[in-house]
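Dear H.,

Thanks for agreeing to be a second pair of eyes. The structure we're designing against is below in token form, covering all 394 positions.
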């Protein structure tokens, strides 16, 4: 089946009435459509079909175009009205046009080829063949594209035979076979074969903004925003910078240095706090050991660990004692975290591995480890844990 695509002839048409010729699951096939199907790095059109939400448009190899609707209340032969989500479609046309201009200038001015492109909901990405692209180059490109925007170059289409298109020596290889090759020409800037939708002239791009870059498969992928989204992103970044300026009481020029110093000082405070927590754990355990009952010569400590303490610090405090049996439990949501430390001669008092399965079943817990430290979690409360530990003492 073949759906007549009106979007090439009338890319600015926002509504259209068509007849349903087929219904496949949650999709409608229409005799003609203004909805651009997903492909070539451009997403499918969305909008409404007779009031029902159109969530995507796709096509198959046979050029049948499928309109994906959220609710199937249609019948074959029925006439329906398409209303495009025009903001969505127009933004893609702007991004697509900007991408041609940017890829053309990357090639002619900087000798950088485009490997692949993607137009997302908010950003346009161009994967280049370069292993590195300096930021100054990206800003120069941004300026060059915006100059083309101001100069308002018309965008037009030409249909060529395969051989005449090949003879033009375009920067990008032609991906379609046979004749009827559709060329997109941004006058005086760029010509490539492309099946996407574009704005009628470069002024419609409005604004082209360099948004950053990332490394992918050893290449640099450049990220841009276009049009209304570019303005929104610039304003968002400025608002964040202003707010940070107030938070750090710093003008923009010194803001990064002030923030860097604050982050470094917070890291220092955090590390001092860790040391203090470790010292407290060590002192508390020391005082518990002094008061502890002994089995043989070995002090046995049962410790209900306060919630603000970290079990890691307790494990560290344990090794400061030559002979010690420590049973520690910290109440957490849904049970306890438990720790059994068997230092030195304590191994003659409690053999964890022998008692492991009875302990775990008594406390409905899991865990393990190797001498001198065993750890885990349990559903039982700390009292049950301590009494299960007592049962293991020989
Ligand atoms: Zn295109």
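And this is the sequence the design step returned. I haven't edited it by hand at all.
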């Amino acid at each position: 089946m073949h759906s007549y695509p009106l979007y090439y002839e009338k890319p600015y048409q926002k509504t259209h009435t068509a007849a349903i010729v087929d219904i496949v699951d949650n999709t409608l096939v229409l005799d003609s459509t203004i909805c651009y199907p997903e492909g070539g790095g451009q997403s499918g059109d969305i909008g409404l079909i007779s009031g029902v939400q159109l969530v995507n448009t796709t096509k198959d190899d046979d050029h049948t175009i499928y309109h994906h609707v959220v609710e199937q209340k249609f019948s074959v032969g029925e006439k329906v009205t398409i209303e495009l989500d025009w903001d969505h479609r127009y933004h893609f046309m702007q991004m697509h046009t900007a991408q041609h201009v940017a890829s053309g200038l990357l090639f002619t001015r900087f000798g950088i080829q485009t490997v692949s492109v993607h137009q997302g909901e908010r950003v346009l990405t161009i994967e280049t063949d370069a292993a590195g692209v300096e930021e100054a180059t990206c800003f120069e490109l941004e300026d060059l594209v915006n100059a083309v925007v101001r100069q308002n170059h018309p965008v037009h289409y030409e249909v060529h035979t395969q051989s005449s298109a090949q003879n033009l020596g375009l920067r990008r290889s032609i991906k379609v076979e046979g004749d009827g090759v559709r060329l997109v020409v941004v006058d005086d800037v760029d010509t490539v074969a492309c099946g996407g939708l574009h704005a009628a002239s470069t002024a419609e791009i409005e604004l082209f903004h360099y948004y950053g870059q990332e490394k992918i498969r050893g290449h640099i992928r450049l990220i841009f925003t276009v049009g209304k989204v570019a303005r929104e992103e610039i304003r968002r970044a400025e608002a964040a910078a202003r707010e940070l300026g107030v938070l750090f009481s710093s003008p923009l020029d010194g803001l990064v240095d002030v923030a860097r110093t604050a982050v470094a000082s917070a890291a220092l405070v955090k590390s001092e706090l860790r040391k203090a927590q470790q010292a407290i754990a060590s002192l508390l355990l020391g005082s518990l050991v002094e008061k502890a009952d002994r089995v043989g010569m070995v002090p046995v400590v049962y410790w209900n660990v306060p919630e603000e303490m970290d079990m890691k610090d307790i494990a560290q405090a344990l090794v400061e004692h030559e002979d010690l049996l420590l049973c520690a439990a910290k109440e957490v949501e849904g049970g306890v975290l438990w720790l059994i430390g068997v230092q030195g001669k304590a191994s003659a008092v409690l053999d964890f591995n022998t008692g492991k399965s009875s302990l775990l079943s008594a406390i409905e817990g899991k865990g393990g480890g190797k001498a001198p430290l065993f750890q885990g979690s349990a559903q039982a409360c700390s009292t049950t844990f301590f009494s299960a530990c007592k049962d293991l003492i020989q």
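Two observations from my side: The pocket of zinc ion is lined by residues 96, 100, 184, 194, 196, 198 (CB under 6 Å). The CA atoms of residues 46 and 95 lie 17 Å apart.

Warmly,
E.
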